[in-house]
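Re: weekly structure request thread

Next one in the queue (267 aa):
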Amino acid sequence: MPLALSSTMVRVCTGVPLIGLLGLALYMGGWVLFALVALCACLGQWELQAMFWNGREQFGGRVLALALGVAMLALALLPKAGMVPISVACLGMLLFFLFRWATNDSERFVSTAVLLGGLCYVPLLLAPVLHLSVREQLLLVGITISSDTAAYFCGIRFGRHKIWPKVSPKKSVEGSLAGLAGSTLLALIVGHVWGSAPLPAFAALGVGLGIMAQLGDFFESALKRSRGVKDSGTLLPGHGGILDRIDSLLFVIPAYATLSTFYPFFN
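Done, posted below.
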């Protein structure tokens, strides 16, 4: 029990400053928010690449992927940018493939796939958040935090039945249900205070985004297990890496952006 308490306190002590930093970025908006999103995208990509390569292996390609990720986010800010960010990423990876072929044709497909996969997984999924209002951004961050927190603590206390042991052995049905309850409750609160859509719509939104948050968590768990690592990194004590903290958000952001295009939840 002391060990579990210590682990929890480490998570809290790391999480509180992160929430403060995120709150400041959301409040400031503009280039401050862009800088934070770009930083998360770069760190997340770097951690993903580190699962496949050690040290300075593929260093040039990794730096290229980070630069393309930031460029994609910057282009996504432009009005009527459309598919330009995706086109830039694909063009960059095709050029990377070409020059790798000219110098070393071993594992050329794998290298390009890893870098392109990182661009699709992190900066491309983060990009829609730059176009959302502060209320929407707070909703998405709040849903992922409430879902993860409720699932974590209820899973530790009441978890008995494993939900998907092949992907994530420690996650339980009880924790998953608590996470859905947490995301739904948060969505209802935000909907009551700020929303323009009916509360049943926000309840459904909370359930849907809660499911997406957990699927994002499962995806990263499967990715880490496929590479034989426990965490994506060691940057955040008690949490792991940046990718371990934003994995749920990476699935929630595009899901909400798609839904809100057809059914607006805020004026």
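Confidence is low (pLDDT under 50) at residues 1-5. The longest helix spans residues 199-227.
Next request, please.
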